[in-house]
Amino acid sequence: MRIKAKSKGDKTEVKVMMKHPMMSYNEAKKKGKEANFIVYVTAKNEGATVFESSTSQFLSKNPYMKFYFKGGKKGEEVEISWVDLKGKTKTGKAKIK
Amino acid sequence: MERRKFLGMGAGMLAVLAAAPSMLMAVNYREKLPEVWKIKNDEAAKGADMKGIEASIKAIFGSDKTEEGKVKLKAPDIAENGAVVPISFKAEGAKRIAVFQSANPESTVAIFDIPERGLPDYSIRIKMQQTGTVVVVAEIGGKLYKAAKMVKVTVGGCGG
To answer: pTM to 2 decimals?
Structure first.
């Protein structure tokens, strides 16, 4: 997972690229594989949830997201976690610049 | 027998109520509304069907009565690669935002609950297997607002 978090005045901008094939049911059928994709993403700043998204098979492969949240100071941490359809989870962290 | 059945239901209700506080803090719509993700676009309409999206809006927000305005949606007029279609959307004051399209087998793409410190301003990349309409619905002050944009897809994504 690649995370960039940047302080912009009274808010923080976060860009994240999550490594995942995001295999839709159609793609899986064609390739003879099982469908699997990220279904839920959250982001926290110093323990407080600042972003929350329930996602589907229709996000592009290695999904990219950009979002903003109120507050966040340089040097603080942003922690992003996802879970996929099979229950696999991954967490990544970055310092706000 | 009837009485026992009734008592059994009561216990079930209590379990739901006990789970409620944690659900208020974070909502995983894959778990909360598993049926939403299965609502299909009419394939015969080849990207022109809006009924699947309307049914999905109702299933998520409890109503499909939407107004225009307040939602700013950016999407390309033409997507050369349907596997990666960049879209971005903003809706000031929104508590919840959902993204749909009419191009793929099912309608719903993503649902965002906006936490207290969240800002309803997002950019994501989606797949579209054919030309279709991207729809973003935001819940603001108890009302639903909608923005829609047709995206012409020249090479479809989604392996479809």
So the answer is: 0.89
Q: Give residue A86's pLDDT band: very low, low, confident or very high (50, 70, 90).
A: very high
Domain count, chain A: 1
Neighbours of B123 (CB within 10 A): 16
Cross-chain Cβ contact A58/B37 below 8 Å:
no
- Which structural domain, as residue segments, surrounds residue A19? 2-95
* Cross-chain residue pair B109–A55, CB shorter than 8 Å: yes
- State the best of A8, A53, A64, A83 to mutate against chain B, taking most chain B CBs within 10 Å: A53
**Residue A46's CATH number:** 2.60.40.10
Q: Please name the fold of domain B39-153.
A: Immunoglobulin-like (2.60.40)
Residue with tokens 């994501």: B124
Predicted complex ipTM: 0.97
CB-nearest to A51 from B115, B129, B158 is B115
